[in-house]
Amino acid sequence: MMTTNRSLKAAAALLVAICVGLPAVPAGAKPAAADLVAPIADYKIWISEEIEKLIAESQTFVDAVKAGQLDRAKALYAPARVHYERIEPIAELFSDLDKSIDVRADDFEKKEADPNFSGFHRLEYGLFAKNSTEGLAPVADKLMVDLKTLRERIKALTVPPEKVVGGAAVLIEEVAKTKISGEENRYSGADLWDFNANVEGAGKIHDLLRPLTAKENPKLVKRIDDNFAKVNVLLARYQAPGGGFVPYEKVSKRDRNAMRGPINALAEDLSKLRGVLGLQ
After folding, report:
1. Helix%, strand%, coil% for the chain, nearest 5
2. Residue 174: predicted pLDDT
3. Which secondary-structure segment (H or E) carries 62?
4. What pLDDT does 33 receive?
5. By C-alpha distance, which of 163, 198, 159 is closest to 177?
6. Of 84, 160, 218, 253, which has the fewest Cβ atoms less than 10 A away?
């Protein structure tokens, strides 16, 4: 009977490992790959939930754009984007879609005038810089096609564990690179929404990995927790009364500088997770 139970456990481990793209291991073994099966599976479930929210909220946003409801479309822009920003490490695995969905004008020779400038930021430019919905319907339709294609690709994806673990640092590095400077949502000033979403996405990965990381390096977990807390305190100062965040221009220079320290420390410490968990 004991042999049968071990066989069943081994078969279950094999099945889960195949589903999340981890190497199968014998029952009772404790390599990093075996321990990562559950958190990686949980992360893929969370990603699937986020993509559904992204589709639903983006459809509402797109409908407002196509209906010519300028003020409503402006209000819906940032809330729809946060779901994309939370899952960016996985979305970026599909570079063609990521470019179409999240490209910025800087990537084109003709900047905003380039006909290939598309996605969220093309809509942002029209709504906030041009203060109009005119001509945006085709862009809005293409965004929804791209997002639905992303959903199907993610469904079929074998999630690479090293991309998930490394994704926490990638999200915070993204904050340091484009959010603190206010470059990401330059037309709408909605950078704090993206900033917070990146932090939430990184925090989700950290929380899922916490039991494993704490066994290997509890001091590292403590530092990460402390810096997440510092960043969240700073973000809370700029929450808008009705939800979300104030425009980035209202963030004081002092607070922008204050954010850099914990953000850079977070990026450095989160980049160590792959090594701690044996995924280098």
Report:
1. 75, 0, 25
2. 87
3. helix 32-66
4. 67
5. 198
6. 253
Q: What's this model's pTM, rounded to 2 decimal places?
A: 0.85
Structure tokens at 101: 């969905």
Residue 160, phi-psi category: left (phi > 0), alpha (psi -120 to 50), beta (remainder): beta
pLDDT at 196: 95
What separation in angstroms does the CA of 64 have from each of 15, 58, 140?
44, 10, 10
For 243, half-sphere exposure in the C-beta direction (CA atoms, 13 angstrom radius) is 4
Q: Which tokens in the block code for residue 8? A: 């069943």
CA distance linking residue 150 with residue 262, whole number of Å: 32
Cross-strand pairs, 239:
245
pLDDT of the residue at 26: 44
Q: Which amino acid is at 175?
A: V
188, 78 contact by CB (below 8 A): yes
pLDDT of residue 32: 52
Q: Is 138 exposed, middle or buried (0-12, 13-18, 19+ CB in 10 A)?
A: exposed
Given this model, what pLDDT does residue 255 score? 87
Structure tokens at 246: 């104030």
Tell me how far apart the alpha carbons of residues 235 and 244 are, in angstroms, rounded to a whole number: 10
Tell me which H or E stretch contains 181. Answer: none
Number of CB atoms found within 10 A of residue 65's CB: 24
Contact assessment for residue 84 and residue 54, using Cβ atoms and an 8 Å cutoff: yes
Radius of gyration for the chain, computed over Cα atoms and rounded to the nearest angstrom: 21
What residues are paired with 245 via a beta bridge? 239
Enumerate residue ranges in the chain where pLDDT < 70: 1-33, 280
Whole-number Cα distances in Å, 211 to 39, 216, 217, 279: 10, 9, 10, 16
Contact between residue 81 and residue 196 where contact means Cβ atoms under 8 Å apart: no
Q: SS3 letters for 205-240? A: HHHHHHHHHHHHCHHHHHHHHHHHHHHHHHHHCCEC
